[in-house]
Design brief:
The protein is mainly alpha-helical. The protein contains 20 helices and 6 strands. Strands 2-1-3 form a 3-stranded antiparallel beta sheet. Strands 5-4-6 form a 3-stranded antiparallel beta sheet.
């Protein structure tokens, strides 16, 4: 397929995804759930094929040819020829930009589809009523999502305790239109979006992959310097290698280690899609409940509502003026309307109770609304770490594709950003979330225990295990912890005993501690 045809076909397909809206009601209906999953999975396969074709045609590095074949020197050609060359170069740059942008959209769409499929796979499983087998959606080919091998129709079973948030799916840039979706965010939601991006981009200190050295070597009665690079330095005795290559008298004068840094989520497009999904979902959540939320917290919400109506009326006031004149007239109009309504005195000063409520509303938006998305994603990622095994996180993308299987101490510290008031508001509307000041402590405890049980082949109920860690490392009671992940108290207590046994020091360790006291 030629490049223009490939670009046109890709744009047409992305636009068809954009017009196909994901209905949340379908995600709670068994038939609609399977249809939505099949549709998204089919889209992902098509998008991955498009991406492969684009990369084969050089869409990944479209500016290379423009950079290599620059214009010749001025003295070699006439002025009109130079003009033609510059015009052609501009055309090729525009063409290269078009390639880059369409591949960027495809990458964004792929990332969004992976996230959506991950959440749906956690949201439900398929069970066969005849042979009692349970299938995960990702395990079955597309043509077997409705019927079991035994011929029986598969039934959807929605999982209550799994970590998922299918409500974010309509807010993901499934058609790669992430720039459009960013522009649709309110100022406070856009600020939340930026904070989530910064959080998910936090880097590990990294593992050493190579080193660059400046070495001094004796040669012909004098010392000379040489630069050398050693790859895979973790598995090489570089001093021995140096002596073998340059003799026993070679000396290292300078060494610089190169590290491979990994972020909390490595893919830029996945970070953007997740940030948009959570920010867009919370923006929609707040928009539906804002009046109710403010009514509970403001002293005189009716005055604030009337003030907003007057402000809107003043903004729409239209006269045959433009620019600063129109702005000044609208300000005077607002002042007069407020005085007429008794919301301001004759000098235009707002009533103290109205002014106080307006300031409080601004504070609620800034200090609560804007902190809900980051609080929610922190809670979801923490719960995902607590309720999944290291192997699962390493091999399976899940609802957070690109998420590292473990976090280092510095990365996990960034999770201590839950907001108490944001949690309180979410709990008012039935969200299973608790304020935990030190999420880092929970995460590090989980990683520590996972390290201890490697190779022990212990059978662990991962959801109960996560609930037990929350109960042991916070002040949340057993019943509440069991409710978070939809498990029984007996399951939680069993895993608590397992954790206590794993963290209990051995006799040798206890003896050593007594000796060093």
């Amino acid at each position: 397929m030629e490049e223009p045809a490939l670009i046109a076909k890709s744009e047409k397909f992305l636009e068809s995804i954009k017009t196909h809206k994901i209905n949340l009601d379908n995600l709670i209906d068994p038939k609609g759930f399977v249809e939505t999953y099949a549709y998204l999975r089919s889209n992902l396969m098509k998008l991955q094929k498009i991406k492969k074709r684009m990369e084969l045609k050089g869409f990944k590095t479209p500016y290379r040819s423009v950079a290599i074949y620059g214009p010749p020197l001025k003295g070699e050609l006439k002025a009109e020829d130079l003009h033609d060359i510059r015009r052609q170069a501009q055309y090729f740059r525009m063409k290269a930009s078009l390639k880059k942008n369409i591949l960027d959209r495809v990458n964004s769409a792929i990332a969004s589809h992976k996230i959506a499929l991950g959440h749906l796979e956690e949201h439900g499983t398929l069970t066969c009523p005849r042979c009692r087998r349970v299938f995960k959606l990702g395990e079955l080919p597309e043509n077997r999502l409705r019927e079991c091998e035994c011929g029986s129709t598969l039934q959807v079973k929605f999982e209550e305790g799994n970590i998922k948030r299918p409500e974010i799916i309509p807010h993901l840039p499934l058609s790669g239109d992430y720039m459009v979706k960013i522009s649709q965010l309110t100022p406070w939601a856009r600020e939340s979006f930026k904070k989530i991006i910064r959080l998910l981009k936090d880097e590990k200190s990294g593992t050493i992959t190579s080193a660059t050295m400046i070495v001094k070597i004796p040669k012909s009665g004098r010392w000379i310097r040489k630069k050398m690079t050693i790859e895979d330095i973790d598995h090489i005795d570089y001093e021995e290698k140096l002596k073998q290559e340059y003799g026993p008298h070679a000396r290292i004068e300078f060494i610089q280690f190169h590290r491979r840094k990994s972020t909390i989520i490595n893919d830029r497009h996945i970070r953007t899609a997740l940030a948009l999904g959570y920010s867009g979902f919370v923006q929609d959540f707040i928009a539906k409940r804002e009046n109710e939320i403010l009514k509970k917290r403001l002293k005189k919400p009716q005055l604030v509502k009337r003030y907003d109506e007057i402000l809107e009326e003043a903004k729409e006031y239209s006269l045959p003026f433009t620019g600063e004149e129109l702005e000044e007239i609208r300000k005077r109009r607002l002042r007069n309307l407020l005085i007429q309504e008794g919301l301001a005195d004759k000098d235009g000063n707002l009533r103290p109770d109205l002014k106080s409520d307006l300031e409080l509303r601004e504070k609620i938006i800034k200090d609560i609304f804007s902190k809900i998305p980051i609080t929610l994603i922190l809670w979801d990622i923490t719960c995902y770490y607590l309720t999944t095994s290291y192997d699962r996180r390493s091999k399976y993308a899940g609802p957070f594709p690109g998420l590292g299987p473990v976090l280092d101490r510095r990365q996990s510290k960034t999770f201590n950003k839950m907001d108490r008031e944001a949690v309180k508001l979410l709990r008012e509307y039935g969200e299973k979330i608790f304020y935990i000041k030190n999420l880092q402590k929970l995460l590090l405890k989980k990683f520590e225990i996972e390290e201890k049980i490697k190779g022990l082949h212990m059978k662990i109920n991962q959801r109960a295990f996560g609930a037990a860690i929350i109960n042991l490392e916070s002040d949340i009671d057993e019943k509440a912890c069991a409710n978070i992940f939809s498990i029984t108290l007996n399951e939680l207590k069993k895993e608590k005993e397992n954790i206590k046994a794993l963290t209990k020091p051995t006799n040798k360790a206890r003896l050593f501690m007594e000796m060093i006291k």
